[in-house]
């Protein structure tokens, strides 16, 4: 009886993961197919990867996605971190007000945020394109940075920074050498979140971009009308990069911990 | 103390421009008709009244139905998986949860695109059916296809909060329940499920929010004829060009989500 329960539990887990991963693996396998068929594997080839590299449109979309994700992450991380640090020094009323406003883009459906930004850019007469996409990405990434950094700052003892300044540190030094190092885990979490939010975004980019500026999501959206194995090749590369990144993020702390314990043993 | 106060100022200015002003503009559009100038503005409820027309009301009901169905399916599948994962030892749990999160990192468009090649008429699933000697089934552009895409994309958002509250649970409650004579079914419904309600509510809200406002999955897997709230908004802005009506629908959508969150918080508070 117990064995049966265990087996059926295992089968259920396997089925769920198959549901998550089968589409991903099928995409990867068929990206190496030599023909356009999505059902018959006619032979191994790198044909679609070559077409991918030669496709100007896709390559520029990759560039847009990557550069916007890096810029938006950098800017929203700085903005979000200083805001989170400043917030803890304010009265409850101000704090709650800002945090509530900050929650609006997180709670609102993406499409509503997208429409709002589109109306804003149109009213301000900013030409839709790379700049509007970047500004939009900064605006929806920053709230996530604040929500991941703020709890860390709140957990800090204000006296530590004050002590540093009493001992002659300038506020800037206290910020850089005392506060930031202590809230690093929160900042890293914010960076990770901001980068993936930006890199994966479709809805907001779709509404605020224009003049032919497209990111990866938008190009995929435009190409789904007909089957196109170059998209499979692109998918495979994106998936591999993410797998490697996730593996590195998760394995590095383990190795570090091991090194530390080895180090401690040696001492 | 006072040194870092000023650091908030850039964000106050920034969020006023990119969060508050867009909302005000959306409200302005929603309560006016086109061709208004700011000087002689005239407010109207017309855009909201129009939403009550049967055509649009049907879109709303269809979105609501599909959203609730997605939530229900994700809840049943996700709770079961989260519960099973929580039975493993901690290191295994961490690996399994990581495996649940990895697909979330992969671009949603790419994952939805993958389903097209499986579900289409000359896709893998039909190839498999014909190998088994069965009639091919047209799956693309149906409720079924949209449902598969939504559940696959949103299920992790249900699993993770539920798993978090299940793994935080004090196991001695379960032992106490058995000691007091409850059977496994009673223990599950009266102890385990009750204690996991915060996670369940979180997951339900997340999946509901995502599924009621999506327009990509219905468009790719449901086809151009498949219209949900999100698609209706998109068409008003992209093809029809009626920004006033589009803004009104956006506001309705935001209000629905707001009420859903309020209601969930109430349930959560009443439960404690």
Short synopsis of the structure:
Chain A is mostly helical.
Structure description:
- Chain A has 267 residues and is an all-alpha fold.
- Chain A has a domain at 55-230: MetI-like (MetI-like fold, Orthogonal Bundle).
- Helices cover 80% and strands 0% of the residues of chain A.
- Chain A is built from 12 helices and no strands.
- In chain A, helix 3 (56-87) runs parallel beside helix 6, helix 3 (56-87) packs across helix 11 and helix 6 (130-154) packs antiparallel against helix 9 (184-200).
- The radius of gyration of chain A is 23 Å and the shape is globular.
- With 272 residues, chain B is an all-alpha fold.
- Chain B has a single domain, classed as MetI-like fold (Orthogonal Bundle), CATH 1.10.3720.
- Chain B contains 13 helices and no strands.
- In chain B, helix 3 (54-87) crosses helix 7 (143-168) and helix 3 runs antiparallel to helix 10.
- Chain B is globular.
- Chain B starts with 8 loop residues before the first helix and ends with a helix.
- The mean pLDDT of chain B is 88.
Topology:
The complex is a heterodimer of chains A (267) and B (272).
Chain A: H1 2-30, H2 47-54, H3 56-87, H4 92-107, H5 110-123, H6 130-154, H7 158-166, H8 171-182, H9 184-200, H10 203-208, H11 216-223, H12 229-266
Helix pairs in contact in A: 1-12, 2-12, 3-6, 3-9, 3-11, 4-6, 6-9, 7-8
Chain B: H1 9-30, H2 46-51, H3 54-87, H4 90-105, H5 108-119, H6 124-131, H7 143-168, H8 171-179, H9 184-195, H10 197-213, H11 216-222, H12 229-240, H13 243-271
């Amino acid at each position: 009886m117990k064995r049966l329960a265990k087996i059926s539990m295992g089968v259920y887990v396997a089925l769920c993961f198959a549901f998550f991963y089968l589409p991903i693996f099928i995409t990867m396998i068929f990206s190496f197919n030599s023909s356009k068929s999505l059902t018959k594997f006619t032979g191994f080839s790198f044909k679609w990867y070559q077409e991918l590299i030669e496709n100007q449109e896709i390559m520029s979309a990759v560039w847009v996605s990557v550069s916007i994700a890096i810029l938006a992450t950098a800017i929203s991380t700085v903005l979000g971190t200083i805001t989170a640090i400043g917030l803890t020094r304010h009265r409850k009323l101000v704090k709650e007000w800002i945090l509530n406003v900050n929650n609006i883009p997180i709670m609102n459906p993406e499409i509503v945020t997208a429409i709002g930004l589109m109306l804003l850019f149109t009213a301000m007469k900013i030409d839709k394109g790379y700049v509007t996409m970047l500004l939009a990405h900064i605006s929806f990434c920053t709230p996530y940075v604040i929500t991941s950094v703020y709890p860390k700052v709140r957990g800090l003892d204000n006296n530590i920074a004050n002590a540093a300044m009493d001992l002659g540190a300038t506020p800037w030094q206290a910020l850089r050498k005392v506060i930031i190092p202590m809230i690093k885990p929160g900042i890293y979490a914010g960076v990770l979140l901001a980068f993936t939010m930006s890199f994966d975004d479709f809805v907001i980019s779709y509404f605020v971009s224009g003049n032919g500026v497209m990111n990866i999501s938008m190009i995929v959206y435009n190409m789904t009308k007909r089957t196109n194995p170059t998209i499979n090749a692109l998918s495979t590369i994106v998936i591999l990069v993410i797998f490697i990144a996730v593996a590195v993020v998760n394995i590095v702390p383990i190795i570090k911990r091991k090194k530390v314990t080895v180090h401690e043993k040696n001492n | 103390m006072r040194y870092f106060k000023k650091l908030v100022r850039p964000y106050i200015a920034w969020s006023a421009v990119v969060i508050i002003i867009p909302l005000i503009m959306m409200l302005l559009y929603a309560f006016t008709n086109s061709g208004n100038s700011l000087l002689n503005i005239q407010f109207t409820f017309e855009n909201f009244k129009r939403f009550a027309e049967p055509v649009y009301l049907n879109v709303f009901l269809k979105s609501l139905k599909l959203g609730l169905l997605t939530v229900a399916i994700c809840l049943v599948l996700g709770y079961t998986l989260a519960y099973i994962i929580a039975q493993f030892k901690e290191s295994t749990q961490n690996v399994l949860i990581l495996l649940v999160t990895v697909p979330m990192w992969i671009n949603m468009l790419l994952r939805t695109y993958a389903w097209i090649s499986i579900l289409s008429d000359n896709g893998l699933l039909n190839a498999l059916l014909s190998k088994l000697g069965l009639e091919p089934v047209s799956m693309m552009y149906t409720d079924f296809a949209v449902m598969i895409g939504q559940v696959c994309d949103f299920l992790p958002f249900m699993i993770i909060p539920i798993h978090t509250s299940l793994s935080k649970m004090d196991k001695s409650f379960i032992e106490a329940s058995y000691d007091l004579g409850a059977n496994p079914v009673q223990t599950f419904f009266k102890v385990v499920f009750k204690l996991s309600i915060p996670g369940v509510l979180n997951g339900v809200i997340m999946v509901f929010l995502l599924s009621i406002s999506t327009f990509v999955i219905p468009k790719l897997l449901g086809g151009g004829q498949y219209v949900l709230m999100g698609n209706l908004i998109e068409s008003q802005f992209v093809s029809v060009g009626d920004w006033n009506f589009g803004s009104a629908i956006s506001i309705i959508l935001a209000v629905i989500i707001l009420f859903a969150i309020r209601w969930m918080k109430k349930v959560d508070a009443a439960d404690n």
